[in-house]
Structure formats: C-alpha cells, structure tokens
Amino acid sequence: MSFIQSILGDFLVRDSWPQMVARLAQDDKEFNDMSSQETVPATFESLCEWVYVYELIRSRDLGRRYRFLHQPGNTLSLSGSDGRGREVTIRFQGFLGQHNLKPLGNWRGELRNAHKAVQFVELGCGPFIDQMESQISCVANIKKLVFRDVLNPQDASAALPESTNVDRTLSFQRRVFTKIVSGNDSTPSVLSIMDDPTRQAASVSKFWRVTTKIAFGRKTIEGRVERCNHRAFSPGDFIDVTARIDIANVRTKYDVNTLKVFLAPITIVQLCKAEDVNQAMGVERTPQVSDEEIATVGGLESGGIVFDYIHG
Questions:
Q1: What superkingdom heads the lineage (predicted)?
Q2: Exposed/middle/buried for residue 7 (C-beta within 10 Å: 0-12, 13-18, 19+)
Q3: What are the tens digits of pLDDT across the range 123-148?
Q4: Residue 213's domain spans which residues?
C-alpha cells in the first residue's frame, strides 16, 4: 500500500488534510521514514522508475491481462516469489459524491448484462483544491505510463485521454463479477444471503461469479478501523479509498478495442461523517453534494487496511 506525495513539496497528501483527519492509528510512519515503495512519486519521470506494467502471458481473461507492479528488486519484501514486483495499491481521500456500493452494483439481474455490472465511487475535493490536484496529477501520470507501456509509441499519445479535470473529482470503478471460463472453476462466491437475497447472482454463477468484495470500514474515535456495511456511507462523507490499477481492453459498441485505466476500489473507510466534517476539520462549511449528483441506486480484500472490529 502506497501514499501519494504532494506536488507542492516533500509531504504526503494524507497528512495535508486539516487536523490530520485522514490518518489512521495504523499509519505510524512519517513521510521521511517510509521506503521509496511506500510513497507514489510526484513526477512522471520518477514514476517510471517506480513501477512497470507486466503482461500475464497465460491470462484467462484477455481483457485484463496487464498488472501495475512495483519495480522488482528495490526491496525484497515487495517482490513476489517469482521475482516480479507486487501489485501497486494506493490510498486516496476525498468527499463522497456519486456512488453505488451495493454488492451487485448497478446490475439489473440479467445474464447478458453481467459483464457490465460495476460498483462506482466519485470523490470531490470540497474547498481542499491542493490535495485533490495532487491526487489527480498522480492518476494522470499513471495513465500516461500505462498507455506508453501497453501501446505502440506512435499510438500512445493519440489514445491517451485529455488530463483536464475541471470538476476536480476522482472516479473509481470495479467490476462486480468475475468471468468463469472453465466448467471446472471451483472459485467460490463471496456473497452472503443478505448480498443476494433473491438469488439472482446465484442463477448466473455458471458463467459469472462474485469472487471478491470491497471491504468497508469506519474510523473510530481512537483512530482504529471497525468493519461496517456499505449502507453506512452517505454523500458528503470524508472517506479513504484504497485502490488498485485496473488496466482493461474494452470493446466499444463499434467493435473497436480501447485501452482503459480504472481505479478499482479495494477498501473504503469512512473517516468522518458528512455532518461531522465541520468539527473534525475545523472548516467553516461542509462541502455540499447536490441531489442531482447522487446515484441513489443502490475473498474480501483489505488493501492493507487493518480492521480491529468485526460488525457482521
């Protein structure tokens, strides 16, 4: 798990929010005490020395055969048994806007749409522009590196989306289902009865299965994290999202393969409820999220977040 370095100096975005509200009790390292692998470089040139894109030659999912990995060899603890660096996960913070965190996301229960089912989150910055711009710059650098690694050099610049982000928001998205490519695939579903009360997901498990879920938590007054339900989150909450880099070859409606880079959430922690933001941060007003911006539709991976309490 890595933290984003501010574009304004040698400190973390995590530590630049008012009253250190983004720090958890488990965040016991200061910026100067962290290894190079624990902080995402602020410049594109440094990022090129920090990570690389690895292609899985024998991947069963041809649409997602790339992984975003730490450069191997710099630190032994971050290298896999095969010598490859471990997959990069990054912590982000912001105010919760549009979102759909239901276990089955925006899926409508039809087999033909299972491959499109996603959970999504949008983070806004409120009055904290500097913090968000550092995070947006980080994501832009990551996308630039991915496009250069995966595409031919002459295609990379043309295919890279424009980096303008006038709304100063971050978007996260993850697939709900995993494609089952073999009848002998015994990977179990991680859904509980409450996650799928009508058994809709169970009815398509021969072809699509939910094999991982987002881990949800909330910060306690002591700074620890207790597990909670996705229903605990509301627009305007100040949250922390741990995400991996999901590199996908997506086929458009015109039957053209397009490279996409998503921030796929692994863990989401409620750092502060919307109604408590003023007091927790010492700001004059709580960032507002309009009704029009809210989507009311409604293996566990922790992404490095340690949960102290289990609440069902």
A1: Eukaryota
A2: middle
A3: 999 999 999 999 999 999 999 999 99
A4: 2-301
